[in-house]
């Protein structure tokens, strides 16, 4: 790609998509640095692959999704093998969210992830690509080798099942 502006716009989109997908797939808080690293690696892989990229009738997002899922698999395998590095002590006060708001976000995210794990793998992947990554129905279908109609039906069923599980979980709470 010869035009630097076009390349920068493309890489910004690739990075955003890879980062959102990585955050969802890593699923645990404290993995932001890892998600950032994966997004960076995806950008480097896309830049390298652009020279030999051939249009095959699939959306470019499906190409990026494939690279991102492979990079995430590498990271997850590496995490299983060894200890994770410890963050350094900050130089100043933390301007981020309060511990209370982090606890609420973590609780909500943990509930969502727990319920998502109870869905079939394909439905989980469809929701991840459609909701978290922001892929269109056609892009998701191309990435997963399904028809757009099958993606819509599976997404509808997954969301219906999640709503039912959330209602059931809420009925068990004593507030």
Brief write-up:
The chain has 175 residues and is mainly α. It has seven helices and no strands.
Number of helices: 7
Q: What's the multimeric state?
A: single chain
Mean pLDDT level = 84
Q: Give a count of the beta strands, DSSP E runs of length 2 or more.
A: 0
Inertia-based shape: globular
Please identify the structural class as seen in this structure.
mainly alpha
Order of helices and strands: HHHHHHH
Explain what the structure shows.
- The longest helix has 24 residues, at 148-171.
- This protein has helices spanning 4-26, 32-50, 60-81, 99-117, 121-133, 137-144, 148-171.
- The model has no long low-confidence stretch (mean pLDDT 84).
- By secondary structure, the chain is mostly helical.
Features:
175 residues, mainly alpha, 7 helices, globular
How are the SSEs ordered, and which strands pair?
Layout: H1 4-26, H2 32-50, H3 60-81, H4 99-117, H5 121-133, H6 137-144, H7 148-171
């Amino acid at each position: 790609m010869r035009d630097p502006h076009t390349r920068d716009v493309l890489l910004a989109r690739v990075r955003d998509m890879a980062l959102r997908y990585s955050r969802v797939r890593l699923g645990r808080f404290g993995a932001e640095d890892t998600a950032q690293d994966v997004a960076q690696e995806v950008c480097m892989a896309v830049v390298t692959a652009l020279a030999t990229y051939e249009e095959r009738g699939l959306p470019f997002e499906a190409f990026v999704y494939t690279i991102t899922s492979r990079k995430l698999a590498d990271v997850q395998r590496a995490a299983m093998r060894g200890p994770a590095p410890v963050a350094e002590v900050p130089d100043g006060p933390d301007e981020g969210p309060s511990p209370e708001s982090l606890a609420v976000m973590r609780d909500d995210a943990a509930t969502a992830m727990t319920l998502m794990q109870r869905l079939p793998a394909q439905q989980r992947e469809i929701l991840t690509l459609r909701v978290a990554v922001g892929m269109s129905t056609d892009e998701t279908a191309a990435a997963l080798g399904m028809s757009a109609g099958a993606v819509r039906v599976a997404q509808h069923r997954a969301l219906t099942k999640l709503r039912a599980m959330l209602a059931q979980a809420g009925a068990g709470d004593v507030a």
